[in-house]
Backbone:
Protein backbone atom coordinates (compact mmCIF):
# COMPACT_ATOMS: atom_id res chain seq x y z
CA UNK A 1 0.00 0.00 0.00
CA UNK A 2 1.54 3.28 -1.09
CA UNK A 3 1.65 5.90 1.62
CA UNK A 4 2.43 8.53 -0.97
CA UNK A 5 -0.62 8.36 -3.21
CA UNK A 6 -1.76 11.85 -2.16
CA UNK A 7 1.79 13.21 -2.46
CA UNK A 8 2.04 11.80 -5.98
CA UNK A 9 -1.28 13.46 -6.91
CA UNK A 10 0.00 16.82 -5.65
CA UNK A 11 3.30 16.41 -7.52
CA UNK A 12 1.40 15.63 -10.72
CA UNK A 13 -0.47 18.97 -10.65
CA UNK A 14 2.32 20.78 -12.55
CA UNK A 15 5.85 20.13 -13.82
CA UNK A 16 7.42 22.49 -11.28
CA UNK A 17 6.82 22.86 -7.55
CA UNK A 18 8.03 26.33 -6.52
CA UNK A 19 10.46 26.12 -3.59
CA UNK A 20 9.83 29.32 -1.66
CA UNK A 21 11.84 31.14 0.99
CA UNK A 22 9.49 33.79 2.38
CA UNK A 23 11.00 36.54 4.53
CA UNK A 24 7.87 38.67 4.89
CA UNK A 25 4.51 37.00 5.48
CA UNK A 26 2.76 40.03 3.95
CA UNK A 27 4.13 38.94 0.57
CA UNK A 28 2.88 35.37 0.91
CA UNK A 29 -0.65 35.66 -0.40
CA UNK A 30 0.09 37.74 -3.52
CA UNK A 31 3.08 35.49 -4.24
CA UNK A 32 0.89 32.39 -4.04
CA UNK A 33 -1.82 34.01 -6.17
CA UNK A 34 0.72 34.85 -8.88
CA UNK A 35 2.16 31.33 -8.95
CA UNK A 36 -1.26 29.67 -9.01
CA UNK A 37 -2.44 32.05 -11.75
CA UNK A 38 0.65 31.07 -13.75
CA UNK A 39 -0.26 27.40 -13.54
CA UNK A 40 1.82 26.20 -10.57
CA UNK A 41 -0.69 25.24 -7.83
CA UNK A 42 1.56 23.14 -5.56
CA UNK A 43 3.71 25.44 -3.42
CA UNK A 44 6.51 24.46 -1.02
CA UNK A 45 7.23 27.04 1.67
CA UNK A 46 10.55 26.17 3.29
CA UNK A 47 10.73 26.44 7.07
CA UNK A 48 13.94 28.45 6.83
CA UNK A 49 12.66 31.84 7.95
CA UNK A 50 10.74 33.15 10.98
CA UNK A 51 7.92 34.15 8.60
CA UNK A 52 7.46 30.66 7.11
CA UNK A 53 4.55 29.43 9.24
CA UNK A 54 2.66 32.71 8.86
CA UNK A 55 3.31 32.49 5.11
CA UNK A 56 1.78 29.01 5.04
CA UNK A 57 -1.27 30.32 6.93
CA UNK A 58 -1.70 33.12 4.39
CA UNK A 59 -1.24 30.82 1.37
CA UNK A 60 -3.58 28.13 2.70
CA UNK A 61 -6.57 30.33 1.81
CA UNK A 62 -5.55 31.00 -1.80
CA UNK A 63 -8.12 29.42 -4.17
CA UNK A 64 -6.65 26.69 -6.34
CA UNK A 65 -3.42 26.47 -4.37
CA UNK A 66 -2.05 23.48 -2.45
CA UNK A 67 0.48 24.73 0.07
CA UNK A 68 3.08 22.52 1.69
CA UNK A 69 5.88 22.95 4.19
CA UNK A 70 9.45 22.25 3.13
CA UNK A 71 12.59 21.62 5.18
CA UNK A 72 10.75 19.44 7.69
CA UNK A 73 13.46 18.08 9.98
CA UNK A 74 11.86 17.37 13.38
CA UNK A 75 8.46 16.11 14.62
CA UNK A 76 7.94 19.64 16.00
CA UNK A 77 8.31 21.02 12.46
CA UNK A 78 5.62 18.61 11.29
CA UNK A 79 3.14 19.54 14.00
CA UNK A 80 3.71 23.28 13.48
CA UNK A 81 3.33 22.96 9.70
CA UNK A 82 0.10 20.99 10.00
CA UNK A 83 -1.30 23.47 12.50
CA UNK A 84 -0.46 26.34 10.11
CA UNK A 85 -2.50 24.70 7.35
CA UNK A 86 0.12 22.83 5.32
CA UNK A 87 -1.45 20.17 3.08
CA UNK A 88 1.77 18.26 2.47
CA UNK A 89 5.34 18.17 3.76
CA UNK A 90 8.77 17.94 2.15
CA UNK A 91 11.96 16.86 3.91
CA UNK A 92 15.62 16.95 2.80
CA UNK A 93 16.07 13.38 4.03
CA UNK A 94 14.01 11.01 6.15
CA UNK A 95 14.16 9.69 9.71
CA UNK A 96 11.86 7.22 11.44
CA UNK A 97 10.75 9.94 13.85
CA UNK A 98 9.89 12.38 11.07
CA UNK A 99 7.94 9.75 9.12
CA UNK A 100 6.05 8.71 12.26
CA UNK A 101 5.14 12.34 13.02
CA UNK A 102 3.79 12.90 9.50
CA UNK A 103 1.73 9.72 9.67
CA UNK A 104 0.39 10.67 13.12
CA UNK A 105 -0.60 14.12 11.84
CA UNK A 106 -2.00 12.80 8.56
CA UNK A 107 0.41 15.02 6.61
CA UNK A 108 1.37 13.57 3.20
CA UNK A 109 5.17 13.52 3.02
CA UNK A 110 7.61 13.87 0.14
CA UNK A 111 10.75 12.48 1.81
CA UNK A 112 14.22 13.13 0.45
CA UNK A 113 16.62 10.47 -0.81
CA UNK A 114 19.94 10.78 -2.67
CA UNK A 115 21.02 7.15 -2.97
CA UNK A 116 19.56 3.81 -4.01
CA UNK A 117 19.79 2.54 -0.41
CA UNK A 118 17.85 5.54 0.93
CA UNK A 119 15.21 5.08 -1.76
CA UNK A 120 14.92 1.36 -1.01
CA UNK A 121 14.51 2.00 2.72
CA UNK A 122 11.68 4.43 2.04
CA UNK A 123 10.08 2.01 -0.40
CA UNK A 124 10.08 -0.63 2.36
CA UNK A 125 8.07 1.82 4.48
CA UNK A 126 5.52 2.31 1.70
CA UNK A 127 6.92 5.52 0.20
CA UNK A 128 7.25 5.39 -3.60
CA UNK A 129 7.15 9.14 -4.37
CA UNK A 130 10.42 10.71 -3.21
CA UNK A 131 12.39 13.91 -3.46
CA UNK A 132 15.79 13.43 -5.13
CA UNK A 133 17.95 15.86 -3.18
CA UNK A 134 20.34 17.54 -3.67
CA UNK A 135 19.73 16.74 -7.33
CA UNK A 136 22.60 18.44 -9.16
CA UNK A 137 25.17 17.75 -6.43
CA UNK A 138 24.12 14.07 -6.42
CA UNK A 139 24.89 13.58 -10.10
CA UNK A 140 21.96 15.28 -11.78
CA UNK A 141 19.65 13.72 -14.34
CA UNK A 142 22.11 10.94 -15.32
CA UNK A 143 22.30 9.75 -11.69
CA UNK A 144 18.54 9.84 -11.28
CA UNK A 145 18.09 7.90 -14.53
CA UNK A 146 20.57 5.28 -13.30
CA UNK A 147 18.82 4.92 -9.93
CA UNK A 148 15.51 4.52 -11.75
CA UNK A 149 16.62 1.54 -13.81
CA UNK A 150 16.55 -1.02 -10.95
CA UNK A 151 13.81 0.84 -9.02
CA UNK A 152 11.13 1.60 -11.64
CA UNK A 153 8.34 1.58 -9.06
CA UNK A 154 9.71 4.74 -7.39
CA UNK A 155 8.92 8.19 -8.78
CA UNK A 156 10.88 11.33 -7.95
CA UNK A 157 10.73 15.09 -7.63
CA UNK A 158 14.34 16.28 -8.15
CA UNK A 159 15.17 19.42 -6.18
CA UNK A 160 18.38 21.32 -5.63
CA UNK A 161 20.12 23.01 -8.52
CA UNK A 162 17.21 22.52 -10.92
CA UNK A 163 17.00 25.48 -13.31
CA UNK A 164 15.22 26.50 -16.53
CA UNK A 165 18.34 25.29 -18.36
CA UNK A 166 18.33 21.72 -17.01
CA UNK A 167 14.71 21.18 -15.94
CA UNK A 168 13.75 19.39 -19.14
CA UNK A 169 16.64 16.93 -18.65
CA UNK A 170 14.96 15.82 -15.43
CA UNK A 171 11.36 16.07 -16.61
CA UNK A 172 12.09 13.85 -19.61
CA UNK A 173 12.96 10.92 -17.32
CA UNK A 174 10.33 8.21 -16.90
CA UNK A 175 10.76 8.21 -13.10
CA UNK A 176 10.25 11.97 -12.67
CA UNK A 177 6.78 13.40 -11.96
CA UNK A 178 7.83 17.01 -11.34
CA UNK A 179 10.82 19.03 -10.18
CA UNK A 180 11.30 21.55 -7.40
CA UNK A 181 12.59 24.96 -8.43
CA UNK A 182 13.18 28.33 -6.79
CA UNK A 183 13.75 30.35 -9.96
CA UNK A 184 10.03 31.05 -10.41
CA UNK A 185 10.07 33.37 -7.40
CA UNK A 186 13.34 35.39 -7.52
CA UNK A 187 14.04 37.29 -4.33
CA UNK A 188 14.22 40.68 -6.05
CA UNK A 189 10.87 40.18 -7.79
CA UNK A 190 9.27 39.20 -4.48
CA UNK A 191 10.74 42.23 -2.67
CA UNK A 192 9.61 44.51 -5.52
CA UNK A 193 6.14 42.99 -5.55
CA UNK A 194 6.51 42.13 -9.24
CA UNK A 195 3.64 39.63 -9.17
CA UNK A 196 3.02 39.91 -12.93
CA UNK A 197 6.65 38.99 -13.59
CA UNK A 198 6.41 36.00 -11.25
CA UNK A 199 3.17 34.89 -12.92
CA UNK A 200 4.99 34.98 -16.28
CA UNK A 201 7.86 32.87 -14.92
CA UNK A 202 5.33 30.42 -13.50
CA UNK A 203 3.49 30.22 -16.82
CA UNK A 204 6.73 29.37 -18.65
CA UNK A 205 7.57 26.72 -16.05
CA UNK A 206 4.10 25.21 -16.28
CA UNK A 207 4.75 24.44 -19.96
CA UNK A 208 8.08 22.65 -19.46
CA UNK A 209 6.51 19.24 -20.10
CA UNK A 210 4.58 20.31 -23.21
Residues:
Amino acid sequence: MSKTQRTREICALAPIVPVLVVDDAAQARPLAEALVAGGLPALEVTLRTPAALDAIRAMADVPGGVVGAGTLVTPEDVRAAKEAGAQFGVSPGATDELIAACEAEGLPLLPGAATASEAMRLLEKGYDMLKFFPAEASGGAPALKAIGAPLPQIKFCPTGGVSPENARDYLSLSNVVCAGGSWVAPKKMVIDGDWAGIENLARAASKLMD
Q: What stands out?
A: The chain has a mean pLDDT of 97. Strands lie at 16-20, 42-46, 66-70, 88-90, 109-110, 112-113, 129-132, 155-158, 179-181. The first strand starts at residue 16 and ends at 20. The two ends are 31 Å apart (CA to CA).
